Amino acid sequence: MLRIALSVVIALVASVLGYAALWQGGFVLMREAVQFDRTTDPTALPFVVGGLVLLVVAMLSVAMSSVGVITVGVVHLLSGLVAVLDPSLTFIRLIAQSFGEGSTIGDGVLYSVSTGIGMLAGVVFLVTGLAALTRRSQRPGAVARVASVIVAIVAGPMGVLLAFMGGGLVYTDLIVLATGGFNPTGAVLLLVGTVLLGLAVLTLRWSSVGLMVLGSAIAAIGFFGLVGPGQLASIAERVSRELSVTVQFAAPNGNLALLGMLLLAAALGTVLRSRRRR
Fold first, then answer.
1. Which of 92, 109, 146, 255 has its Cα between 20 and 30 A from that of 31?
2. What string of DSSP letters covers 33-84?
């Protein structure tokens, strides 16, 4: 019971503080990237790094109990579904405005939810908790490891790409054009992408190797996006304009790196939990 309570406290507190720090520093870096401002705020990057560390700690709480990460994941997914199903973003805007007019944290809420980053992070938290509950305690065999890698590197990148493309459509309609209309294409792409990433995370039931490979790749791309957001956005533009829209926000503000770090933390936390059971 103590482990369950600790996991909930650690997951909730670390995720709240982590997002606050990530959005504080990430908004500054994103603004500088969009405006091509070379004058970097020296506190921005430490805030981003600190936020990432705290969110990794939140995910690692799965080593004690799944309840904390499941709770955080449900909150993420519910807020993401509200953004998809409520074209006016009324509820999300009220939350953003509660932090004050022009608040970086409020803007972080809008960017994360409307572009689909929140849903992707949510499915990582939620499925990690569920997979850890049902994972076998014995050491995974070679077949399980290979299968986890294959599923993770196929479903994971496809899920992130589709979700980012759908998030770009939703963001454009809700924030840029302010049409207030429901975008079915964006919603479907976002939901399908979220499900595919969830399938990749579910490979934790077999082995953590697949998610380690996927997380390392996405984290590397994410950190490259922090230092070279323009180059990454140009590459994304070749795939689709909608993908580029999301990358322009997710790369410089650290959200793409966040996804990679959460996947790595999920793999590590599940390994630690399985070793504790032996």
1. 92
2. HHTT-----TTHHHHHHHHHHHHHHHHHGGGT-SHHHHHHHHHHHHHHHHHH
